[in-house]
Here is the input.
Amino acid sequence: MKKDWKYYLGMSLFLYSFLPMSIVAILPFLGLTLAQAGAFAVVFLASGEVAFLCAAALLGKEFLTALKKRIKAWFKRSHEPKPISRNRHRFGIALLASSFLPHYVMLIYLLFFSHKESEINFLAWTLVAGEAAFMAGLFILGGDFWERLRQLFVWPGQEMKKVLV
Here is the structure.
């Protein structure tokens, strides 16, 4: 791929296209009204989409093919998951279980206590912390846990009939 002005402009637009998603994620914490946040989000996300389309046009088919190949490589399993220690498992399960607490704390707080506008930011950050604990717990538990979790959603089919009969 020739590195001329099209390449550099295309790469800049490609990198910019991811910025609006991360900025929109923090909008609830900026203290904007719902109308302001909504208008900002729509315009900003649309600019990211336009930037991505322009980047795709400038960079061409070979860049998009290489990008698609790299993304597919992330999701392919290249090796068997390694077993984790008992302490790591306990810590991961504790994080996973505690990640649900902020949701219930916020629900109880909103139902039974008077809340002020200034406390909403604290509650929103509490939910973000719960989500972060959930994701960290899943990653700490490792590949074996992911496989067991995936098996929960696999239909056993004929194998289950053999066990029941």
About this structure: The longest helix spans residues 117-151. The CA atoms of residues 65 and 71 lie 10 Å apart.
